[in-house]
Structures are given as structure tokens and as C-alpha cells.
Write a structure and sequence with these properties.
0% strand; 8 helices
């Protein structure tokens, strides 16, 4: 699994199928393993923005993976990237309220772990959205 990015580059250099592959891994709760056991987790995390923007209906499949990014100290340096991706995706879907709600749910779940720098933006998004019940991810 350590060389997964290299394998992806060899097989799908134009990344036509990479996002669907990552979605599939996430659905099977294997994407977290990829992030924790790979030499370049940032490559995979950066793909999340495209996934959230182009396939918002699968956003909840990233729930567990995002939870690990925000909470696991081994991925702490990637947390600012995840924060930025969630905030950008919320703005990307400004014309589609249903898609925005999906992103708000992810923001709301991870809000307590946002950096102070991004917490205000997340707070504003959450406060401008009707109440969305959340449940704990374990």
C-alpha cells in the first residue's frame, strides 16, 4: 500500500478513475488505511475537494476518513488542508442548497477540531444553516 500513489500514476495517470477509486475505498472504510500507511497522504486528501465538488451525493462516504484526519495526530499536518477543502466546497455549492447541506454536515461534525483561524468561518456557515442533527462517529 505504500506505493499506491505510484501505482495509480502508472495505471491512471490522467486521474480519470482515481476519484471513483477513492470513493470506493472510502465506502469500504479502507481510505483511512491508505492515508495512514502511505508515503503521500496529501495526494489523496487533495482529491477530496474534487470529489466533494463533483460528487456531493457521496460526501457522507468521506465521513470516517475526514474524522480520522481531524482527530488522529499522525495526520494532524493535513488538517488545515481538510478544513480548506470543506470551506471551499461549501462555497462551490453556493447555488445548490442540498449540496451545501451535505458539506455543512461534514463541517459541523468536525467543527470542534478546526483551527482557531478557520473556526470563525465554520461557525458562520453553521449558524447560517438550519439545524442539521449530528450523530457521533466512532
Amino acid at each position: 500500500m505504500r506505493n499506491l500513489r505510484i501505482r495509480i500514476e502508472e495505471i491512471d495517470s490522467s486521474h480519470i478513475y482515481t476519484d471513483m477509486f477513492l470513493i470506493d475505498l472510502s465506502m469500504r472504510e479502507k481510505l483511512t488505511d491508505v492515508l495512514l500507511n502511505n508515503e503521500d497522504p496529501e495526494f489523496f486528501i487533495r482529491r477530496f475537494e474534487k470529489i466533494l465538488n463533483e460528487y456531493p451525493e457521496v460526501s457522507l462516504w468521506l465521513l470516517t476518513t475526514l474524522d480520522i484526519i481531524f482527530k488522529d495526530s499522525r495526520l494532524a499536518k493535513y488538517k488545515p488542508i481538510a478544513e480548506e477543502i470543506l470551506l471551499n466546497s461549501y462555497n462551490y455549492h453556493s447555488s445548490n442548497r442540498d449540496n451545501q447541506k451535505r458539506i455543512v454536515y461534514l463541517i459541523k461534525l468536525n467543527y470542534p477540531y478546526f483551527s482557531e483561524e478557520k473556526k470563525l468561518a465554520a461557525e458562520q456557515i453553521i449558524s447560517n444553516t438550519p439545524n442539521i442533527p449530528t450523530s457521533k462517529v466512532s
